[in-house]
Amino acid sequence: MKGKLVNVEDYRRLAAKTLPRIIFDFLEGGAEDEKGLVHNRDVFDQWRFTPHRLVDVSERNISTRLFGKNWSAPFAIAPTGFNGALWPGGDIKLAKAAASANIPFILSTASNASIEDVARCAEGEKWFQLYVVQQQLAEQLVMRALNAGYTTLIVTVDVGVNGNRERDRRNQFSLPLKITPSLLMSGCCHPAWSMRFLQNGMPQLANFVSAESGSLEAQAAVMSRQMDAGFNPNSLKRIREMWPHKLLVKGIIRPEDAELCVACGVDGVILSNHGGRQLDGNLSPLETLADVAARIDSPVLADSGFRRGSDIVKALCLGADMVLLGRATLYGLAARGLRGVDEVIALLKSEVDCTLAQIGCPAVDDLSAAYLQRMS
């Protein structure tokens, strides 16, 4: 790609050129007609800034405090699976970039590096995201995260069944990755990716290759994202009893569901529509964020569709305590490995800082709905 990489979209384009089509489609794709993907981006235009003037913004502070710790920026790296297909050691590279930038990193249950390996190889605070397939298996994963020193547990509740991701179905994408003639042909057209892949081998779901990981049936269920469709408030309470640290629930949209989670003893919620990958036609978290923040006293985080520093600032104005980045940092990983993740994080920090200056707000902690106006 010619020219300087100056925004997340530039990294997306480079990732598309770097990865075989089947891999990029897995990263980029959504459910069914993918209208939810488009909506997740378009929704930010529903709010416009109303800048304050005659404000001293010669010094600005984009740091924030959450769960008793100071972070250098109001965003974290979201849990994402199968990152080893984008770049060898992808999960560890993401964790290292987060530690270097002093932002939280969240490891997915469906990672290609194990809970223990990430804890061993990357400094910084690490959070663990739990998919519940079976109660016994979930309890094993929770205890492994606890023993490995993870400080926050995130339970994802919006994957009762796998989303209808038609790109993956057309490509016959599966976990583990199958070597098909189509993949081989695409690999020939992407020699740098193919060389890295051949040198490092087939990515595995590393949390499910040990004897303690449960049955082969459970491993197959995770690979096809066949989660526990019977997960309910009592199930959540059982996990709450097991986990002595901060506990968040991810996948919430409705304010009353956020209230129910708090009643079950969680420490906060993450508003998410799974990046448009589960249900097409879903609301964006941005559309319920203000209502949820007004209904609960616990921290509210949000993901799905964030590509700009201005997107992040809008969410903070509407009541988010922090934003999670999924595809944005994965584009950096796919394009340039660890260097690309570092660059995307730095880029978004710079955009958040610039947006604060432009709207006349000296600090992230001073943001409020007064800086926004919703368009009719």
CATH topology: TIM Barrel
Question: What's the CATH class label?
Answer: Alpha Beta
Judged by helices, strands and strand pairing, the structural class is: alpha/beta
- Whole-number mean pLDDT: 93
Instruction: Tell me the domain tally.
Output: 1
Helix and strand sequence = HHHEEEEHEHEHEHHHHHEHEHEHEHE
Helix content: 40-55%
What's the arrangement of strands in the largest beta sheet?
4-11-10-9-8-7-6-5
Going by CATH, what is the homologous superfamily?
Answer: Aldolase class I
Overview of this protein structure:
- The protein is of the alpha/beta class.
- The chain has one domain (8-374): TIM Barrel (Alpha-Beta Barrel), CATH 3.20.20.70.
- Helix content is 43%, strand content 12%.
- It is built from 15 helices and 12 strands.
- The protein has helices spanning 8-18, 21-28, 35-42, 90-101, 115-121, 135-147, 166-171, 181-188, 191-200, 216-223, 233-242, 255-263, 285-295, 309-317, 327-359, and strands spanning 47-49, 64-66, 69-71, 75-77, 105-107, 126-130, 152-156, 246-252, 268-271, 300-302, 322-325, 372-374.
- The strands form 3 sheets. An 8-stranded parallel sheet has the order 4-11-10-9-8-7-6-5.
- Strand 2 (64-66) and strand 3 form a beta hairpin.
- Helix 4 runs parallel beside helix 15 (327-359), helix 12 (255-263) crosses helix 13 (285-295) and helix 14 (309-317) packs across helix 15 (327-359).
- The protein is globular and about 60 Å long.
- The mean pLDDT is 93.
